[in-house]
Amino acid sequence: MVVSDLVAWLDYAGVAVFAATGALTAARHRHDIVTFCFFAAVTGIGGGTLRDLLIGAPVFWVEQPAYLAVCMVAAALIWILGERPQGSRLLLWLDAVGLAAYSVLGAAKAAQMGVPPLAAVVMGVLSASFGGIVRDVLAGQPSVLLRREIYVTAALLGAGAYVALRLAHVESSYAALGAFGGAFALRAAALRLGWALPAFPGRDETKPAAPWTGVPPTE
Amino acid sequence: MVVSDLVAWLDYAGVAVFAATGALTAARHRHDIVTFCFFAAVTGIGGGTLRDLLIGAPVFWVEQPAYLAVCMVAAALIWILGERPQGSRLLLWLDAVGLAAYSVLGAAKAAQMGVPPLAAVVMGVLSASFGGIVRDVLAGQPSVLLRREIYVTAALLGAGAYVALRLAHVESSYAALGAFGGAFALRAAALRLGWALPAFPGRDETKPAAPWTGVPPTE
Amino acid sequence: MVVSDLVAWLDYAGVAVFAATGALTAARHRHDIVTFCFFAAVTGIGGGTLRDLLIGAPVFWVEQPAYLAVCMVAAALIWILGERPQGSRLLLWLDAVGLAAYSVLGAAKAAQMGVPPLAAVVMGVLSASFGGIVRDVLAGQPSVLLRREIYVTAALLGAGAYVALRLAHVESSYAALGAFGGAFALRAAALRLGWALPAFPGRDETKPAAPWTGVPPTE
Q1: If you count residue pairs, one on A and one on B, with CB atoms under 8 Å apart, how many are there?
Q2: What is this model's ipTM?
Q3: CA distances from A199 to A146, A215, C37 (A)
Q4: Residue B62: partners with Cβ closer than 8 Å, 6 or more residues away
Q5: Alpha-carbon distance A82 to A86, whole Å?
Q6: Which residues does B180 contact at the CB level (< 8 Å), separation at least 6?
Q7: Which of B50, B62, B134, B136 to mutate to test the interface with C (most CBs of C within 10 A)?
Q8: pLDDT for residue A215 is more than 60
Q9: pLDDT for residue A136 is more than 80
Q10: Cα gap B41→C119, rounded to integer Å
Q11: Each residue of C40-61: pLDDT tens digit?
């Protein structure tokens, strides 16, 4: 009971946090309130939308407009509160919560629909990362995919751990909490300690070493 | 009868006009005729395609290839007529007709399928704007989303007014015509008078003030 | 029997080759292994995914994770083998095989589902080209669409020839092989002889003549 309540709250919280990162992107480009809402909605519900299309489920927010309302509220809050240095730091951590929650919820919804394990893992990863990818493409900024930091990898850990624990017959709520904790811990380590996976060796032909990561340029 | 004929014509006209803006983008980049057709099709039918996928309807042009043929004809016309300064101005106004028509038609189709009001409004906005967004992303040019002008907002007015009028039990054809007129009038005002919504206040960190709009740079 | 085996092999081979081009893009940007797999999967199965969504079929790789596994293997191979000048040349030719195979397979699957001829041709073109388009958009590099070379055109020939031969009551396997051969021959000619369709005449306002093609700049 308590666990399933927690899951429902994580669901709305994940949408709200992703939506806020979308609105912040609109703020950085000085957009108007309608574009704020557009970016908030695309980022907040984009990942789950792709997941539902791929597994053949009805798209979750079409029947439950509460998700759209959550995105609008997030956009309005960012508009009212404005940009604050400490807010953007806070959001990075909330985004880590959303990432971990959505990787697990996405995999769980796919598994529930009878999707095979490997594809269910992919659905978890897409649920957690696709909204942010579309946000970056629409804003014309380098995608989270192109940053050499542990982001998609944390989603992969969350979705993979959930599916693996379920295959080992761990009860669904416990599997979800364990996988959520693992994904959040990995993302937190990346944020605090600058963890990154080793890059493909060789000289980058396209640009100088990315300044976003804590790792030294590839040798 | 006359009204429903008008709606059918607005439908094809909207696709043709959007397709022409796609072909014009290909012309600006000196592409070949196949890429002309590709851009015309993506822009002409992209918005309605996303709407149909999201509401779970069969994608409209798959069963009725006449829409594809309209896009090909539009691409061929742009190829033959070439670029003309006055043509691009004309197209801006025709695009305003397409925008207004599609925001209403998109919302109406969603409402007909039983989609709840808030989601139906979103479907109208996406039908009217998504084709142009994909066109801009594929062409690598700044998206219509990133221009601080009233474009998505006009689509929002059209879709929102239609849904609101229907909730107030206005007959469907009248609601459609009223909403179409409102959306077109707002877009026309933006084109003629340089109307824009207020931007999020603060210094734009990403680039100098956009030269596209009639509004002064944000203070 | 032999022909249908060939078709099945072409299917996996096409996915593998497209996936390898995705992984090579990740290699050029010095990404980590997770991003390698992401780019490999998006490029390898992106086109078929869009086709299945548009024709209302279950997405092919969700039920058959072997396709995902093929993408992972392709990503791992590129990671291990590294970039080699001759490898990238080989891949260009393998990509031509994938392009020809997928244009035919995509049109054939759509036709089998009862999609009308013109729309089936579009499905073939999208199956063959959409994965590469998404790869380029995500990597922030100029899309294959924007290069003035015969690429989408070869896919159009393959899909169009297959549908035309089937309408002329040619047996499915023969139609597939003939269309495949035509598409591959056209793409090969483009690669070897620098063939290109004539560009839309006029001065390119957006950038200097593209250096990718064998054709002289438009006059």
Answers
A1: 80
A2: 0.85
A3: 12, 10, 13
A4: C54, C55, C56, C115, C116, C119
A5: 11
A6: B10, B100, B101, B104, B158
A7: B62
A8: no
A9: yes
A10: 11
A11: 999 999 999 999 999 999 999 9
Size of interface B-C (CB pairs under 8 A): 82
Position with higher pLDDT, B209 vs C112: C112
Among C134, C128, C133, C135, smallest CA distance to C110 is for: C128
How far, in Å, CA of A49 to CA of A41, rounded?
11
| Chain B residues whose beta carbon lies within 8 Å of the beta carbon of residue A59 | 54-56
The tokens describing B219, both together, are 């203070």
In the numeric block, which tokens belong to residue C63? 């039920």
Contacts of B113 in chain A (CB under 8 A): none
Residue whose C-alpha is closest to residue C122's, from B46, B153, B54: B46
Nearest alpha carbon to residue A22 among A149, A135, A114, A144:
A135
Q: How far apart are CA A94 and CA C160, in angstroms?
A: 50
Q: CA distances (Å), A126 to each of A52, A190, B14, B188, in order?
A: 10, 20, 33, 39
In a mutational test of the B interface, the residue from A53, A62, A80 whose CB has the highest number of chain B CBs within 10 Å is A62
| C116-162 tens-digit pLDDT | 999 999 999 999 999 999 998 888 888 777 777 889 999 999 999 99
Tally Cβ neighbours within 10 Å of residue B102. Answer: 32
Mutate which of B24, B35, B63, B73 to disrupt the C interface (most C C-beta within 10 Å)?
B35
Contact in structure between A102 and A128 (CB atoms under 8 Å): yes
Asked whether A185 and A157 are in contact (CB, 8 A), the reply is no
pLDDT for A8-23, tens place per residue? Answer: 777 888 899 999 999 9
Compute how many other C-beta atoms are within 10 angstroms of the C-beta atom of residue B84: 10
The interface residues of chain C toward chain A in range 155-194, judged by CB-CB distance below 8 A, are none
First vs last Cα of chain A: how many Å apart? 52
- Residue C19 and residue C74 in contact, taking contact as beta carbons nearer than 8 Å: yes
Q: How far apart are CA C77 and CA C71, in angstroms?
A: 10
Using alpha carbons, select from B196, B189, B193, B180 the residue that is nearest to residue B97.
B180
> Which chain B residues are closer than 8 Å to A62 by Cβ?
54-56, 115-116, 119
- Please tell me which of the candidates B125, B152, B200 has its beta carbon nearest to residue A79: B200
pTM of the model: 0.88
- Decide: helix, strand or coil at residue B207: coil
